[in-house]
Amino acid sequence: KRILILNGPNLNLLGRREPEVYGSQTFETYFETLPALFPELDLAYFQSNHEGAILDKLHEVGFSYDGIVLNAGAYTHTSVAIADAISGITTPVIEVHISNVHAREAFRHHSFISPKAAGIIVGFGLKGYELALRSFL
Ligand code: DQA
C-alpha cells in the first residue's frame, strides 16, 4: 500500500519549535524509523508551509495512493480549500495532531478537516502518525 504523510505549516520546525508542546525530535529523524516498523507500506513524506502546495499534493496523490496521513497544522483551523480538496479526492485521509488541540486555545478546537477525515488521532505526539499508519494495514 502506498501512503503519503503530509505535513503542513511550521511542522518543518519540529524538534526546535516549542519542544514542550511538540517534542524534541525532527520529523525527518522520526520518518526514518517508520519503514522498519511498517515494512508492508510504501511510505512517502511531503511538508509545505504553503496552502496551495498542500492542495497540489492532495490532488497529485489523491486518486492513486491508498491513504494520506495529514497534519495540516494551523490550516486545520482555517482552510476551507483543504477541506474541499479532501472531499474531491478518493484516497482516505486520516487527520493527525501531535498535541491535544482540545486542551489548548479555543481556536484550535474547530477543524475544517475533521468532517472529511476517515479518522482523527489527536494528542499522542509523533506516535499518532504510527497509529494512523497502523489503521491502513
Ligand atoms: C498541530 C496543532 C495545530 O493547532 C497547530 O497549529 C500546529 C500543529 C499539532 O500537530 O498538534 O501547527 O496540528
TrEMBL record:
The active site is at 22 (proton acceptor), 97 (proton donor). It comes from the Bacteria. GO terms for molecular function: 3-dehydroquinate dehydratase activity. InterPro entries: DHquinase_II, DHquinase_II_CS, DHquinase_II_sf. Its EC number is 4.2.1.10. PROSITE patterns: DEHYDROQUINASE_II (PS01029). It catalyses: 3-dehydroquinate = 3-dehydroshikimate + H2O. GO terms for biological process: amino acid biosynthetic process; aromatic amino acid family biosynthetic process; chorismate biosynthetic process; quinate catabolic process. Keywords: Amino-acid biosynthesis, Aromatic amino acid biosynthesis, Lyase. Substrate binds at residues 71, 77, 84, 98-99, 108. The record marks 17 as: Transition state stabilizer. It is an enzyme of class 4 (lyase). Pathway: Metabolic intermediate biosynthesis; chorismate biosynthesis; chorismate from D-erythrose 4-phosphate and phosphoenolpyruvate: step 3/7. Belongs to the type-II 3-dehydroquinase family. PANTHER family: CATABOLIC 3-DEHYDROQUINASE. Catalyzes a trans-dehydration via an enolate intermediate. Homododecamer. HAMAP family: AroQ (MF_00169). This is 3-dehydroquinate dehydratase. It comes from Siphonobacter curvatus. The gene is aroQ.
